[in-house]
Specification:
Shape: globular
Strand order of the largest sheet: 1-2-3-9-6-4
Structural class: alpha+beta
CATH class: Mainly Alpha
Number of strands: 11
Number of domains: 1
Order of helices and strands: EHEEHEHHHEHHHHHHHHEEEEHHEE
Largest sheet: 6 strands, mixed
Mean pLDDT: 92
Strand content: 5-15%
Distance between the termini: 58 Å
Length: 399
Amino acid sequence: MTTHTEVRRYPFGDPIRLDPHPLAAKLQREEPISRVRLPFGGEAWLVTRYADVRAVLSDPRFGRAATVGREDVPRVRETPALPNVLTSMDPPELTRVRKLTMTAFTARRVQELRPRAERLVDELLTVMAESGAPADLVTALALPVPVTVICEMLGVPAQDQRRFREFSDAVMSTTLVSAEERMAAYGSLATYLTEQIAVRRADPTDDLLGALVAARDNEDRLTEDELVTLGITLLVAGHETTANQIANFTYVLLTTGEWDRLRDDPDLVPAAVEELLRYVQLGNGGAFPRIANEDVELSGTLIRAGEALFVDLGAANRDEEVFPDAHTLTLDRHHNSHLAFGHGFHHCVGAQLARLELQVTLTALLRRFPTLRLAVPADEIAWKTGMLLRGPKSLPVAW
């Protein structure tokens, strides 16, 4: 068995733009399963190698449900994991709830959304062009695209979209707001979803939230708490990740010189999106601890029952054993089995929707603004801090 002595602080430090912390790559080479100390709850294991990360994500002996409500579980936020959240469930409960949502996110149903997504993006880009340069790509495009799409899927009225956006950043905070403010925002979202559920009980609808209400009331496949929490999860997770990645991808393309290549070869967009998903480290680390429910040996290290561990998806996606020249952005990379959407039981239910939104947005942006460029020096762009996800606060662009 491997002996581990040094315990490092995790996350390793404040993020610098989208740059991966160099310690992650060092650990992957020299100590792929290491000991770390989290801001709350104590020590845990950190897994950085691609093969080990995949193994953990698909192994039922590592569970999320045991983290719910426990102050002694290592974590990045003051408050412990909440119940009834998809990311805090294990099979068979997770399987039951996922099945109810997966029907709305199949590849076929997502492709049916393409015409609407294309119209939406073109409308937003028309407004951006008419308003003139410089424009903030975050507020003009990156945020409204996924917010509008997920709200329309769920049936959230257009006039209420701003209402829930006000609470979303607080819910996704690590240190940006206090624990009390974060829970207050979560409570506000729960109140809003409860109101929307009541509307659908009085007047059934055929949107996604209406279907979930029917599953709760007519088929008894959801508890009331699961129904509300699932609605919150879909609203928040359904736009936060993609909104950040639209801005992140554009920033990377413009600062690496790859924008021109993609503009000249737009057929590369689907492959480029996959490569950008692999290359760009969206998370700041430490979001979702898992608990070993029995002793498990992982690559020569014994993880004892009850111990917590984290997987570093960003490090795994730059594992040189899997991705040649892993630290190089290669837009036409083949066999790109990245883990940006996770793997196994908790693989992102909205992965196909995110791919669609990213492809549609990049394709239209390249076509409508072929000479797009940053409107300020790259080092003047302000980046979000104290959040689970990375992204620019604003992205000034010109053309």
